[in-house]
Specification:
The complex is a heterodimer.
Chain A: H1 2-23, H2 35-42, E1 57-63, H3 70-82, E2 89-95, H4 99-111, E3 116-119, H5 128-136, E4 140-145, E5 157-160, H6 163-176, E6 182-188, H7 194-209, E7 213-220, H8 225-238, E8 244-247, H9 250-262, E9 274-278, H10 282-289, E10 295-297, H11 304-315, E11 324-326, E12 331-333, H12 339-345
Parallel strand pairs in A: 1-2, 1-3, 3-4, 4-5, 5-11, 6-7, 6-8, 8-9, 9-10
Antiparallel strand pairs in A: 10-12
Chain B: H1 13-22, H2 26-42, E1 50-53, E2 59-62, H3 64-89, H4 96-112, H5 125-148, H6 154-172, H7 199-217, H8 220-229, H9 231-236, H10 241-267, H11 279-289, H12 301-320, H13 328-343, H14 345-366
Antiparallel strand pairs in B: 1-2
Helix pairs in contact in B: 1-14, 2-12, 3-7, 3-8, 3-10, 3-11, 3-12, 4-5, 4-6, 4-10, 5-6, 5-10, 8-10, 11-12
The chains are: A alpha/beta, B mainly alpha.
């Protein structure tokens, strides 16, 4: 009996390792043979980048799980397309949604002596010591997409989306519609995520400041279309009146629209209810183009070009002018969007 | 149904009520009644059902009750499989949410083809559904084999798929988010044109009928309870506990496939990280609410199904009263604590003793 159990547990462990491997398929893209001379040399001349790998710049990229969302998938594809050998990079990828696993991976990349460490942190805290290690090893750290709670001397640059600015873009657009009364269903993302905080704050401030803006309901659907549908369904069943749905991502807007369709409430351009989403998924922009939705605000996942520029400058000894680089992000109105926008900005 | 020992004649009303509380059905019915009464007092319009039209011009029923029955469908179907698994293996499968992601992903992969954006269906829906069932049953068999042949505790065994499932689901579609553009696919998760009742309700009822027939005309129920109560005794009586356990996991796999089908059909697309999130906990809760022992053995299928509806009733009630949805799990937790404590044998014993004392006292006073 015990024997069986131990065999079983071993099998389970082996299997779960397979599972881990499946989660991080590209984690071992770095050619293993080059590591040994590099790490020996690293002890005394850490400042010399890319000496042993030909002229390739070695980067370690720590990202969230690409399955997390369409945003993340687009972000990961963008990274993979930019940091290629043709572009002079030797990139290794690590994916996890867990902060401690990411930190362990960062430690590993430091030991592998990468030249640059690119991090999209899962959590904001706990990064100080590993980033100090990176600094001592002469590795430049660039943060993308997410910020962390660490001294800003520990990284050279941080390329982020300003979620509050995104929120302001949307809310200002909504204000420009000039409705007599704004009765809003506010569907929030996972509470405490930076996207939720920024996007909610912008709306909350506007509702606070204007008497004709009211929140019919304010609920989190945790980025989930189905929960969003249930929330909107509950409002419809209660018979309360509303004319705006402000969803903090496209999936949730889609769920909300499904509930409206069931109840035959018209939405979009010339409809009774204004639909607003975030992230600019391709299918969402198509809905905007078709006039079923009114507005979609971009959350730009394409940081790779910015990072590439910073690295190329650093290679020539030019420090980035600003530590925090906020990406430009557009919003798309159903009245002005074109097919070109859908093709260019859709993720 | 459980025996109550209530057949003796001449029992007082108090004893009869006591007998009722001992019935397994008591817990879900009481919970449901409490919710119904609460809603009746707070707002009687809760129970209104209206006939309206959807945006395509077809007649549809709407109202909180319809929403509850509609949204509970997946949970009901999962509760059926989870009850069997619980009974036979004395543990729960916590990977059903991740397995739904896999089943849904397989379905969309077949319907949408490799690029994920095909304008028309690449295969008939029935073919996609059958393949999706096979895949889900295969994963069920994987869990079942770990539990039955390798004797790994069910929660540990299914933890593997729980962890890896959503990544596997994403891998099946190359990390793409496929979208079905054919409107006929969405009928299964919403409404068939002309039929005012949501399709998931029909699917759930069909599953209930099937499992009722299976339990009536096969020995599945008896065997899985036997194995759950005492696998050694079952073996001595000529049953193979391993095979029985494996079968229950495969049946759960089938339930997962059906639930996954409804889920992806609702929006004609999938989001690997959030689809059917935390549904495993609700499914387990449904089994517990039904008064079934989570340690295996005897079960009451109808009570589990009732439990699933109670959970959705609770969820919708909380939405109606604008309870912050991030606080929903906390409310569910409170319900679970109350129910689990109430259904614990020790507590029941004490309650019945206390009850006897008061009734015998009052009887003496009367005398």
């Amino acid at each position: 009996m015990k024997k069986f159990l131990s065999i079983g547990v071993t099998a389970a462990m082996a299997l779960s390792m397979c599972a881990c491997a499946a989660q991080a398929p590209a984690a071992t893209e770095a050619p293993a043979g080059d590591d040994t001379p590099a790490s020996e040399a690293a002890e005394d001349e850490t400042e010399a980048p890319a000496a042993d790998d030909g002229d390739l710049i070695k980067v370690g990229i720590i990202n969230n799980d690409p399955n997390e969302s369409g945003y993340r998938t687009a972000n990961d594809n963008d990274m993979k397309a930019t940091f290629t050998e043709e572009n002079g990079y030797d990139a290794s990828f690590f994916y996890s949604l867990k902060n401690d696993e990411q930190i362990a991976a960062a430690q590993q990349f430091i030991q592998d002596d990468v030249d640059y460490l690119l991090i999209s942190a899962a959590g904001t805290s706990g990064w100080d010591s590993v980033l100090t290690d990176a600094q001592t090893a002469g590795i430049e750290v660039i943060l993308f997409d997410r910020t962390i709670d660490a001294d800003d001397s520990l990284y050279v640059a941080s390329i982020v989306s300003d979620m509050y600015q995104e929120g302001l873009n949307s809310v200002n657009w909504l204000e420009s519609q000039g409705l007599d009364e704004y009765k809003i269903i506010h569907i929030q993302g996972v509470m405490g995520s930076s996207a939720q905080i920024g996007r909610s704050q912008a709306l909350d401030e506007m509702v606070e400041a204007n008497d004709n803006w009211t929140l019919v309901t304010q609920q989190t659907a945790e980025w989930n279309a189905e929960t969003a549908e249930q929330i909107v369904q509950a409002v419809i069943d209660s018979g309360e009146d509303f004319n705006v749905i402000y969803a903090e991502n496209d999936d949730m807007a889609k769920g909300a629209v499904a509930a409206l369709d069931k109840a035959n409430i018209s939405h979009g351009v010339d409809g009774d209810v204004i639909i607003m989403g975030y992230d600019c998924n391709q299918w969402a922009l198509e809905e905007v183009l078709a006039g079923n939705w009114n507005f979609d605000q971009q959350c730009n996942p394409f940081q790779a070009a910015y990072i590439d520029e910073i690295i190329q400058n650093l290679e020539q000894g030019i420090e980035p002018a600003e530590k925090v680089i906020v990406m430009e992000e557009a919003g798309f109105d159903a009245k002005t969007i074109t097919q070109d926008d859908v093709d260019k900005y859709g993720i | 149904m459980t025996k109550t020992g209530n057949s003796l004649t001449g029992k007082s009303l108090g004893a009869q009520i006591l007998g009722l509380t001992r019935k397994q059905f008591f817990i879900p019915i009481a919970a449901l009644l409490a919710l119904v009464v609460f809603n009746l007092i707070a707002d009687p319009s809760f129970f209104e059902i209206k006939m309206g039209q959807n945006s395509a011009g077809d007649p549809v029923l709407s109202g909180y009750l319809v929403t509850i029955f509609d949204n509970a469908s997946e949970l009901v179907i999962l509760a059926i499989g989870m009850t069997l698994v619980t009974a036979a293996s004395g543990g729960q499968d916590i990977s059903v949410g991740a397995a739904i992601a896999i089943a849904g992903s397989v379905m969309l992969r077949i319907l949408c083809g490799p690029d994920g954006k095909a304008a028309e269906l690449q295969a008939p829906i029935i073919v996609a559904f059958i393949i999706c069932c096979l895949v889900a049953m295969l994963f069920g068999a994987f869990n079942g084999a770990l539990v039955s042949y390798f004797k790994i505790p069910p929660m540990v065994a299914t933890l593997i798929l729980f962890t890896a499932g959503r990544s596997i689901a994403a891998w099946i579609n190359n990390n793409q988010l496929p979208i079905v553009n054919d409107i006929s696919f969405s009928y299964y998760g919403n409404f068939f044109p002309g039929i005012p009742v949501p399709t998931p309700i029909f699917i759930a009822v069909a599953c209930m009928i099937v499992i009722a027939l299976v339990l009536k005309f096969t020995n599945l129920g008896l065997y899985s309870q036997t194995v759950g109560i005492n696998p050694h005794a079952a073996r001595l009586n000529g049953l193979n506990p391993e095979v029985i356990k494996l079968i229950t996991y495969i049946i759960l796999g089938l339930c997962v496939a059906v639930a996954g089908f409804i889920k992806v059909s609702r929006f004609s697309t999938i989001n690997y990280s959030v689809i059917a999130k935390d549904i495993e906990m609700d499914a387990i809760l449904a089994v517990a609410l039904g008064g079934n022992s989570l340690g295996g053995g005897k079960f009451n299928m109808a009570a589990s199904i009732m439990g699933a509806y109670v959970i959705q009733f609770l969820t919708t009630t909380l939405y109606k009263f604008n309870v912050v949805s991030s606080a929903l799990p906390a409310y569910k937790a409170i319900v679970v604590i109350i129910l689990v404590v109430l259904s614990a044998p020790i507590v029941r014993e004490k309650i019945s003793r206390a009850w006897k004392k008061t009734t015998s006292k009052s009887a003496k006073e009367v005398a």
